[in-house]
Amino acid sequence: MKITPGKYRGFVKISNEIGQFQMLALDQRNSVEKMVKDVKGSVDPEDLVRIKRSILKNLSDKVTAVLIDGEYGFPQNLKYVPKNSGIILSAEKSGYFTDPSHLNDRLSSLYCDGVAELAKDAGLDAVKLLVYWSENSSESTKLHQMKLVEELGKECEKEDILYILEILTYNVSGTRTDAILKALEIFSEERYGVDLFKVEPIVTDANFNLRPADIYKSTKGKPWVVLSEGMDAEKFSEILDLNCRLGASGFLAGRAIWKRVVSGVDDTEKMDLHLKHTGTYNLNLIKHSSENAVPFFNVPYFGGIENMEIIWGE
């Protein structure tokens, strides 16, 4: 399988020495703002900068990559990421907006224009886009979401930077697992240019009849990692173990690792102590559950690193 140098280096930079992903997400914005308000009754932008700085200082050396947003602490907080950890830039605005004619639909948007170029110029390793998807949304909403994914994919191709797509399903018909697989099947088409999928945990009863080949069929054989949905580390580690046996190449998790640090938002020393001990424990627990993750180069799409042909883009 052919792959360009930038895409290949992106995969290598955000994975470990055997191609597994153990990645830390701290691009959350609206959810962290709500958590801070629950603690102190109000929130200031500096609160989020301080929380994210503490997470990077204490945990970024223990993961293969960190996922950051471009609004709180970027680029100042980059100095807290060690050279051996990859850096992924989140492309979307936090949350979603709605169309007055379809109030139940969720529309995604970019937080700035030229985000792939920005990431490339800053020396980052990948770009991640979150989109909401419902098969029951209006056709105009579906077209908007698909256009957004496709246009960023073309931008990432132009900049030769790795493209990660996170899909959050809502208002589903049938099982959630079916909704996840159908969404993956749509966005795995080559026109979207997605390199790696960030997938909701597969946790329904359908797991008992599901095989890795079923999920790879939906991703067209491309690699996928699991998000944590903010659940507790113990629960996520159990689900992650199952997902890795279903073919996941690792995790990209956030609040499951560090969510309780927010209680110390006004005390940096307290946050650092929590992350150094409890945060590290949570992370190690989750990393242990990803030991059976499939190396990115061994997924069906690539078929082994010996079969990856690195070429210049056309």
Structural notes for this entry:
Helices cover 39% and strands 17% of the residues. The chain is α/β, with parallel strands linked by helices. It has a single domain (2-310), classed as Aldolase class I (TIM Barrel, Alpha-Beta Barrel). The chain has an eight-stranded parallel β-sheet. The chain has a two-stranded parallel sheet with strand order 1-12. A two-stranded antiparallel ribbon has the order 5-6. Strand 8, helix 6 (176-187) and strand 9 (196-199) form a beta-alpha-beta unit. The longest helix has 22 residues, at 268-289. The chain is globular, with a radius of gyration of 18 Å. The model has no long low-confidence stretch (mean pLDDT 95).
Give the topology, please.
Layout: E1 2-3, H1 5-13, E2 21-25, H2 30-40, H3 45-59, E3 65-68, E4 86-90, E5 97-99, E6 102-107, H4 115-121, E7 126-133, H5 139-159, E8 162-169, H6 176-187, E9 196-199, H7 212-219, E10 224-226, H8 233-245, E11 250-253, H9 255-258, H10 268-289, E12 309-310
Parallel strand pairs: 1-12, 2-3, 2-11, 3-4, 4-7, 7-8, 8-9, 9-10
Antiparallel strand pairs: 5-6
Helix pairs in contact: 3-10, 4-5, 6-7, 8-10
What would CATH call the class? Alpha Beta
CATH architecture: Alpha-Beta Barrel
Strand order of the largest sheet: 10-9-8-7-4-3-2-11
The shape, in one word, is globular
Helical segment tally?
10
End-to-end distance, in Å? 15 Å
Briefly note the structural class of the backbone: alpha/beta
| Gyration radius from CA atoms, angstroms | 18 Å
Mean pLDDT: 95
* CATH level 4 superfamily: Aldolase class I
Strand content range: 15-25%
Tell me about the biggest sheet? 8 strands, parallel
Order of helix and strand elements from N to C terminus: EHEHHEEEEHEHEHEHEHEHHE
- Indicate the percent of residues in helices: 25-40%
- Total beta strand runs: 12
Quaternary state of this entry equals: single chain
CATH topology description: TIM Barrel
Count of separate structural domains: 1
The low-pLDDT segments are none
